[in-house]
Amino acid sequence: MSPASANRQPDLLPRSKHPTIPIAADHKLVQLTDTLDWTEMEDRAQQIRSCKLKNAAGRPPHLRASLGAMLLMATRRLTYREAEDLIRYYAPARYLCGLTETEWTPDFTTIQDFTELMGEEGIKLINQHVVQMAVKHKLADPKTLVADTTVQEASIPYPNEMGLMTGFLTSVASAARKVGRGLKGFVQQTGSRFKAARQKAREYRLFAKTKESKDRVMKQMAAIVEKLNENLGEALKAPAAQRERLRKYAIVAKTKLVQLQATMIKLLPQVRYWIRTGYVASDKIISLHIPQLYSIVRGKVGKTVEFGLNWGIRRLTGGYLLATLAQDRHELQDTRFALRAVKDHIALFGQAPLVLCP
Q1: Cβ-contact 111, 69 below 8 angstroms
Q2: What pTM, to 2 d.p., does this model score?
Q3: Ranges of each domain in the chain
């Protein structure tokens, strides 16, 4: 520590890094912990896990801690890393996760894996159970409902056609090297095509200045990518690739290649439609790695379009949220979501809210 930042009056005794403080009984996380039926929650989570896992191999899951972490993220807007940090050092969060008698903390990958395993339907069931218990114990009031839609933006580059095709080539080249001998022939036979594609990408970025020249290079690039994608499909179906026993990262790499090959089959006609008409094709793929994403026209100043997923959010008095993920860009519209929110509210609580704030 530099002299300028050092404490000029140090403590006589070093401060303890194991503070002891009581947790207030009226804290919202404490009240939530004490009112929930954790046995019912764990049973629901175990049923969802059993439906999705092939077998029970592996270590037993920390269901209590993982459920608490998921509920903490539902009550506060947190990333996985922020949730890990809060559970590690914030006493009410540790109480929610049932970790006050241990120093163990789930890391962010454990929280993420559990949340992804639960999936949308699993999280929805657990979230509804929590909100119903909160209403039952007067922690939330269903008489007032605030409903709105929002976009969960994805961290992806701007989805232009040349960028998507270049990203496809980069991802395929990286994954193919990890699969093993089954795709060795594909890597060797397509080396010249990958080189030609890289040259087209360079030509597009450095020398194509007019719309005509850009469309011409993009059309040539699409032809190369289409041929490479056909070669990849044939290689994945070849007997050598089918017989090879893969392990660990090779399994992940092959699964990625299968997903990329299927995505590019859908994307190439959309690229050619853009070149031919100048308009974006319906249900345009905007991400190779997360093809479920879509563009959402928002009409904001300086940001007319956002890329990600559309959510419908319902908030009760007390801060409890219920979220609905749109399956496509047309399912949840601002003008119609208020009516959808009231119908869902009646289905969950048996009566309509007295006050609706759209």
Answers
A1: yes
A2: 0.69
A3: 28-118, 161-277, 294-357
